[in-house]
C-alpha cells in the first residue's frame, strides 16, 4: 500500500515523480489499477517535462504501462496522444525511427485528435521541432537546420518562457549547440568547434541540472577518445545509466569521426581505433538503421586513410565493398551523403586502378551536390549544401585531364559551380517539368509558391518532393551540366567565340585553360604560372584591395595609391600566367575567325582567379588584353546557356535611374552627376530618383527600396528595360550578404531579387548597371559566385555590369557615360558598348561626345582615364 501512496502523492503534485515512476515499474503486471496509476502519473510528467534522455525514457515506460491497461476516463486519449508524441521524438533521437517523415505525420494526426485547445499543445510542438530536426538531418535540409535556433526560441515563447526566463534561455543555447554538433557530424565536418560551443552552453547551466550533467558526460567521453584517452564502456554513460544499442552506435560514430579528423589523421593508433568504433557501430545499429550508409562510408574512410598512412593497399577491397553497399542504400542524389559516398568511391577506384574510371563515379556524386542545393529554401543553406562541390569538381577535372578529356574536365568544373544561382534560374521551370511528369497537383502548388515571391511558401519539403518526382520520371537531367553541343549553341547565340575555364594550379600541379569554341573540338592549355596563391604580385594586389575596400576609394589616398600601384604587376602576371597563351597561342587556331569585331572570349575563372581583372591583362609591350580581344565573364556553362536561352529585350530611352540617394553613408557627387547626365543624354523618358547634381532630392522620388522594387516588377509598357544604379553597394563574405544601400539606409538584398521578379514572370529587363562598389564580389565563395550582379542575372535580367572593387567615384562616372553613349547612340550590344568605352578610356586621342556635360568633362580633365583602376573594375555578364 505504501507504493500506491507514493504514486498517488506524486500524481497530485506533492511527491517525487522519479520515485513514483520507480515504484510503479516494480508493481507486478497484474496489480489492480496499474494502468490507471500510470495514467495518473503521466499528466504531471508531461506538464513538468524534462528534456533529458533518462526522463524521456521513464515517461515512455510509464506510457507503455498505461497503454497495456488503459483507464476508461475522458482525459486518457489526450494524455495518450501527448505521451505518444514524446515517445516518437525519443525514438527518433535514439535512431529507432525508420522514417522521420512518417513519425512527423503521426504527430500531426495526434495533435489533430487532441484538438486545438489541448493543454498538451506545447508538447506536440516540441515533438514537431524535434522530429523536424531529425528529418532535416536525414534529408540534408540545411535550411531547417539553420532555422533551429529561431524555432527553439518560438517554442520557448509559446510555452510561456520568454526572455525573462534565464533557465529557458540556457536550455535553448544548449539545444542549439547540440543541433550544430549533430549537423556537423552528419556532414562529416570538423567537430571540435561545435563541441566547444556545446560545452560552453552546458557549463552555463546550474550544476545540478540533469541536462547539463548528461551533456558534459557525453562531451567528456568524446574528448577522451579524440585525445587518445582510456577506452570507454559504451554500454553505460559515465553516470552508470544504461545505453541503448542505438546510443552506443551513435557515440562510436561520433568518436570515430573525431579520431579520423575528417580523413586527415596521421596517427595510426587513432585510425585503428576509429575503424574499430565504426565496425562496432555497424553491428550495433543493425541493417535497417537510417545511418547505415553513413557508418559504411565512415568505415571506408578509415580504411582508406590507413592505406594512405601506411602506403599500402590493404583494406581497399573491403572499402570498395562497403562503399558499394552504402551507394546502393543511399539510392541516388536525393540522399544527403550521396556526393560524399561517390567521392570516396572514386578515390578508392583510383587507388585500385578499377575498371570503372574514378572520374565517372565522381560525376555521379556531383549530382548529389546539385540536388541538395536545389532543395534548400534560402541562400545560406544552399551555400552550406554546396560547400565541397567546387573542390570536388576541381579534383575530378584533374582526373579527366589525366585521361586527355577536356570536355569531361569542363563538365566536372561546371558541376561544382554556381549551384545556388543555377537553382534560382530553375525555379520557374520546375512547374512545367512536373506537368510533363503528370503531376499537375504538385505543379500547381509549386507555381503558386513561386508566384507569391515568398521563400517560405516554397519550403524544402515541397522542393524535395518535386525533385524526387522528377527523378522518378527520368527528368533529373537538370542536375547535369550542359554538354558541348549546348555550349556551342549558346556561344553562337551570344556572338562569342570561345568559353574559357581558367583553372588554377595547386600543390605542385600546373594550372590549365579549358577551351570550348563555338566551332570545333574542345581543348586545353597547360599554364604552369597560374598559381595565384604563390604569386607575390597577386598577393600584393589582394592585400591592397582588401585594405582599400575598408572605405571609399576617393577618400583614402594612401590606400588608393597602394592599390593602383599593385595593379601594374598584377596585370602583367595575368597576361603571363593565362591570357597571353590563350590570346597568342589558341585564338589564332580557331576554326572560324570573327569578322567585323574582335575575338570575344567568355571567362569562367575558378577560385580566387575570380578577383582578377582579366580584361586588363598586360602584354610585355604595355598593351592590354582588351586591345586584342573582348572579355565577358560567366559563372558557369549552365548560366551561359540560361543567358543565351533568354530572348533579347529591345532598348528604349526609358527606364529607372537611381542617383546617390541619401543613405547616411558618404555622398557620391560624381555618381550623382553621372546618373543625371546619363538620364538627360540617353534616357529622357526614364524616371530619375535619388539626388540631383545640386544635392536636392528628385521630385519623382528619393530612391527608396520600394521604388526600385516597384520598377523591377512593373508591367507598364512605359517602365522601360534599363536600370542604372549609381549608389552604394556592399558585399560581405563574412555575413554572406550583398545589398544595395538606398534612401534612408534601407537595403535591397541580393537574395530577394529572385523571389521578387518571380512575382512578375512577364517582366523583361534588358540591362542592369551596378555602378556602385563591389557589386560583382561573390559573398558565398568564389565558385558559388553569388553577388548582386549574378543575382540579377539569375532572376532573368539579360545583361548586367558589375564591379570587382571599390571603384573611384570620379573617373568611373566618365566610363559609365561613355558606356551608355556607345550603347544608345552607337547601337552596340551591351558587351561591345563596355568594350568600346574601356578602349576609349585608354585612347590618348579620344573624342569627347558633344552630349557629355561640363561636370563630367571637368572630371575627365582632373583624372587619368587610362589608369587601370578607372576602367578595369567593370565586368560584363549575360547577353
Automatic annotation (TrEMBL):
Superkingdom of the source species: Bacteria
Pfam families to which the protein is assigned, alphabetical: CHAT
Domain named CHAT: residues: 570-878
InterPro entries given in the database record: CHAT_dom
Identification of the protein by name: CHAT domain-containing protein
Amino acid at each position: 500500500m505504501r507504493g500506491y501512496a507514493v504514486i498517488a502523492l506524486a500524481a497530485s503534485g506533492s511527491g517525487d515523480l522519479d520515485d513514483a515512476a520507480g515504484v510503479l515499474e516494480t508493481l507486478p503486471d497484474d496489480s489492480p489499477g496499474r494502468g490507471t496509476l500510470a495514467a495518473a502519473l503521466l499528466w504531471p510528467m508531461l506538464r513538468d517535462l524534462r528534456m533529458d534522455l533518462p526522463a524521456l525514457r521513464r515517461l515512455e515506460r510509464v506510457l507503455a504501462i498505461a497503454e497495456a491497461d488503459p483507464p476508461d476516463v475522458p482525459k486518457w486519449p489526450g494524455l495518450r496522444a501527448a505521451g505518444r508524441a514524446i515517445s516518437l521524438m525519443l525514438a527518433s533521437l535514439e535512431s529507432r525511427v525508420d522514417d522521420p517523415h512518417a513519425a512527423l505525420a503521426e504527430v500531426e494526426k495526434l495533435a489533430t485528435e487532441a484538438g486545438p485547445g489541448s493543454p498538451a499543445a506545447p508538447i506536440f510542438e516540441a515533438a514537431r521541432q524535434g522530429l523536424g530536426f531529425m528529418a532535416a538531418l536525414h534529408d540534408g535540409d540545411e535550411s531547417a537546420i539553420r532555422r533551429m535556433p529561431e524555432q527553439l526560441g518560438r517554442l520557448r515563447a509559446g510555452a510561456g518562457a520568454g526572455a525573462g526566463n534565464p533557465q529557458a534561455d540556457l536550455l535553448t543555447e544548449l539545444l542549439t549547440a547540440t543541433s550544430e554538433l549533430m549537423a556537423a557530424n552528419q556532414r562529416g565536418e570538423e567537430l571540435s568547434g561545435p563541441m566547444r560551443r556545446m560545452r560552453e552552453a552546458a557549463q552555463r547551466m546550474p550544476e545540478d541540472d540533469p541536462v547539463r550533467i548528461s551533456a558534459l558526460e557525453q562531451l567528456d567521453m568524446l574528448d577522451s577518445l579524440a585525445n587518445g584517452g582510456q577506452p570507454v564502456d559504451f554500454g553505460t554513460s559515465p553516470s552508470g545509466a544504461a545505453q541503448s544499442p542505438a546510443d552506443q552506435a551513435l557515440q562510436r560514430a561520433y568518436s570515430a569521426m573525431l579520431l579520423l579528423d575528417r580523413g586527415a589523421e596521421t596517427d595510426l593508433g587513432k585510425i585503428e581505433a576509429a575503424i574499430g568504433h565504426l565496425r562496432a557501430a555497424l553491428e550495433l545499429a543493425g541493417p535497417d538503421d537510417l545511418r547505415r550508409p553513413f557508418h559504411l562510408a565512415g568505415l571506408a574512410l578509415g580504411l582508406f586513410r590507413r592505406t594512405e598512412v601506411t602506403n599500402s593497399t590493404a583494406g581497399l577491397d573491403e572499402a570498395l565493398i562497403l562503399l558499394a553497399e552504402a551507394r546502393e542504400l543511399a539510392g541516388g542524389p536525393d540522399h544527403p551523403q550521396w556526393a560524399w559516398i561517390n567521392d570516396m568511391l572514386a578515390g578508392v577506384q583510383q587507388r585500385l586502378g578499377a575498371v570503372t574510371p574514378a572520374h565517372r563515379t565522381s560525376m555521379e556524386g556531383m549530382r548529389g551536390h546539385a540536388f541538395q542545393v536545389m532543395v534548400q529554401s534560402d541562400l545560406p543553406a544552399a551555400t552550406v549544401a554546396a560547400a565541397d562541390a567546387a573542390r570536388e569538381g576541381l579534383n575530378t577535372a584533374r582526373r579527366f585531364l589525366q585521361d586527355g578529356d577536356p570536355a569531361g574536365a569542363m563538365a566536372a568544373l561546371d558541376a561544382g559551380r554556381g549551384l545556388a544561382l543555377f537553382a534560382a534560374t530553375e525555379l520557374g521551370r520546375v512547374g512545367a517539368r512536373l506537368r510533363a511528369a503528370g503531376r499537375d497537383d504538385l505543379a500547381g502548388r509549386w507555381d503558386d509558391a513561386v508566384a507569391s515571391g515568398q521563400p517560405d511558401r516554397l519550403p524544402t519539403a515541397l522542393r524535395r518532393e518535386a525533385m524526387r518526382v522528377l527523378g522518378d520520371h527520368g527528368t533529373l537531367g537538370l542536375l547535369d551540366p550542359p554538354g558541348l553541343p549546348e555550349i556551342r549553341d549558346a556561344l553562337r547565340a551570344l556572338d562569342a567565340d570561345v568559353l574559357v575555364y581558367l583553372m588554377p594550379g595547386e600543390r605542385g600541379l600546373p594550372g590549365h585553360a579549358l577551351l570550348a569554341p563555338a566551332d570545333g573540338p574542345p581543348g586545353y592549355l597547360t599554364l604552369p604560372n597560374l598559381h595565384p596563391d604563390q604569386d607575390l604580385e597577386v598577393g600584393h594586389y589582394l592585400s591592397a584591395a582588401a585594405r582599400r575596400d575598408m572605405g571609399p576609394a576617393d577618400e583614402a589616398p594612401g590606400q588608393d595609391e597602394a592599390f593602383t600601384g599593385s595593379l601594374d604587376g598584377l596585370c602583367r602576371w595575368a597576361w603571363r600566367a593565362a591570357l597571353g597563351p590563350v590570346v597568342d597561342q589558341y585564338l589564332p587556331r580557331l576554326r572560324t575567325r570573327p569578322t567585323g569585331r574582335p575575338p570575344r572570349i567568355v571567362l569562367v575563372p575558378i577560385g580566387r582567379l575570380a578577383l582578377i581583372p582579366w580584361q586588363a591583362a598586360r602584354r610585355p609591350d604595355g598593351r592590354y588584353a582588351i586591345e586584342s580581344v573582348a572579355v565577358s565573364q560567366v559563372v558557369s556553362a549552365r548560366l551561359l546557356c540560361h543567358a543565351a536561352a533568354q530572348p533579347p529585350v529591345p532598348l528604349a530611352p526609358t527606364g529607372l535611374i537611381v542617383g546617390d540617394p541619401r543613405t547616411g553613408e558618404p555622398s557620391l557627387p560624381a555618381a550623382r552627376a553621372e546618373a543625371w547626365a546619363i538620364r538627360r543624354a540617353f534616357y529622357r523618358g526614364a524616371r530619375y530618383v535619388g539626388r540631383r547634381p545640386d544635392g536636392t532630392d528628385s521630385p519623382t522620388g528619393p530612391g527608396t527600396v520600394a521604388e526600385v522594387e516597384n520598377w523591377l516588377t512593373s508591367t507598364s509598357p512605359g517602365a522601360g528595360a534599363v536600370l542604372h544604379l549609381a549608389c552604394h553597394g556592399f558585399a560581405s563574405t563574412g555575413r554572406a550578404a550583398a545589398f544595395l544601400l538606398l534612401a534612408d539606409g534601407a537595403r535591397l538584398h541580393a537574395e530577394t531579387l529572385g523571389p521578387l521578379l518571380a512575382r512578375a514572370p512577364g517582366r523583361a529587363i534588358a540591362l542592369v548597371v551596378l555602378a556602385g562598389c563591389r557589386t560583382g564580389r561573390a559573398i558565398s565563395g568564389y565558385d558559388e559566385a553569388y553577388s548582386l550582379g549574378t543575382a540579377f542575372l539569375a532572376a532573368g535580367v539579360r545583361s548586367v555590369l558589375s564591379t570587382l572593387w571599390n571603384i573611384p567615384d570620379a573617373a568611373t562616372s566618365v566610363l559609365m557615360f561613355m558606356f551608355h553613349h556607345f550603347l544608345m547612340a552607337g547601337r552596340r550590344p551591351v558587351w561591345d558598348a563596355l568594350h568600346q568605352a574601356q578602349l576609349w578610356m585608354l585612347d590618348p586621342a579620344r573624342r569627347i561626345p558633344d552630349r557629355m556635360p561640363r561636370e563630367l568633362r571637368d572630371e575627365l580633365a582632373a583624372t587619368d582615364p587610362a589608369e587601370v583602376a578607372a576602367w578595369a573594375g567593370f565586368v560584363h555578364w549575360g547577353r
